[in-house]
DNA sequence: TCCATATGTCGATTAGCGTGGACATATGGA
DNA sequence: TCCATATGTCCACGCTAATCGACATATGGA
């Protein structure tokens, strides 16, 4: 991932409404949500939301697909991996001992038992 | 990690000079660099750099320590782990199959042989 | 004490972002 | 065709960020 693309992604996520949108769309993977529904759920005017959705799209964090009159937005999970990878690889340069704890921390969160427990807590 | 803290971190990294500073300090772990040296290496006026260093510090991405007249800045690697964790845990909610590829992608980067190869490529 | 070095703070300027009203476009149904 | 719904674009306003000159503070040496 290039720095320019990373800066776009960081800037897109550095805004509370957009971060909320991103999390909302991640929760609704893999079906996604129509633009109007996103605006309604977050109580944001549709034109303001349209701008935010455009910023997230330009950053590659979400994607859109037209379905007749509605446009369905979906989170791009590859982008999440790319950003996390960008961060970690920056800190891994010649210093694997720094990153091992990170992977150790992340690994248990990816087991099915952990996910089931998290879901139960909600 | 709270959303507010994450937004501070994303905003801090969504600026080319600050991203350069962060990477520079990561390269100089664990010794760090004096503020003036950071400004000189990135060809940025010392007062402008002082502002950027303050933003990164407020975001918890770097830390400072006075050594007589100079102030040594160091990257906070725990913050890197926290941001990466924030991103991944957002996408892990009930969907471990999404995150497993990320961990798989990251794991090899944390082996000593990989780090040695990366260093050799520079 | 006086001065040089290292760094931070203040203030002004410029540029860009977030917001939302008004309008434009696209789609499907009557 | 006409209208309602869904979404995007344009524009102006207000606010915040980025920059950097000038000044302030802190430290150590002569």
Written overview of the protein:
Two copies of one chain form a homodimer. Chain A has helices at 3-13, 16-27, 35-42, 46-58, 77-92, 96-106, 112-121; strands at residues 33-34, 62-67, 70-75. Chain A has 122 residues and is mainly alpha-helical. Chain A folds into two domains: 3-78, Arc Repressor Mutant, subunit A, CATH 1.10.10.10; 91-121. Chain A is elongated, with a radius of gyration of 16 Å. The first copy, chain A, contains seven helices and three strands, in the order ααβααββααα. Residues 114-122 of chain A have low confidence and may be disordered. Chain A has a three-stranded antiparallel sheet. Chains A and B meet through helix 1, helix 2, helix 5, helix 6 and helix 7 of A and helix 1, helix 2, helix 5, helix 6 and helix 7 of B. Chain B binds a DNA duplex (30 and 30 nucleotides) through residues 11, 15, 17, 34-36, 39, 44-55, 66, 68-71.
For the CA atoms, what is the radius of gyration of chain A? 16 Å
Query: What class do helices, strands and sheet pairing of chain A give?
Result: mainly alpha
What share of residues are in beta strands of chain A? Answer: 5-15%
Oligomer: homodimer
CATH topology of the largest domain in chain A: Arc Repressor Mutant, subunit A
E-strand count of chain A:
3
CATH superfamily of the largest domain in chain A: Winged helix-like DNA-binding domain superfamily/Winged helix DNA-binding domain
Distance between the termini of chain A: 34 Å
Poorly predicted spans of chain A? 114-122
Mean pLDDT of chain A: 85
Number of helices of chain A: 7
Percent of residues of chain A in helical segments? 55-70%
- Order of helical and strand elements of chain A: HHEHHEEHHH
Kindly report the greatest chain-chain contact and the residue count on each side.
Answer: A-B, 50 and 50 residues
- Compute the number of structural domains of chain A: 2
Characterize the main sheet of chain A.
3 strands, antiparallel
CATH class of the largest domain in chain A: Mainly Alpha
Which second-level CATH architecture of the largest domain in chain A applies?
Orthogonal Bundle
Cross-sheet strand order for the largest sheet of chain A: 1-3-2
Coarse morphology of chain A: elongated
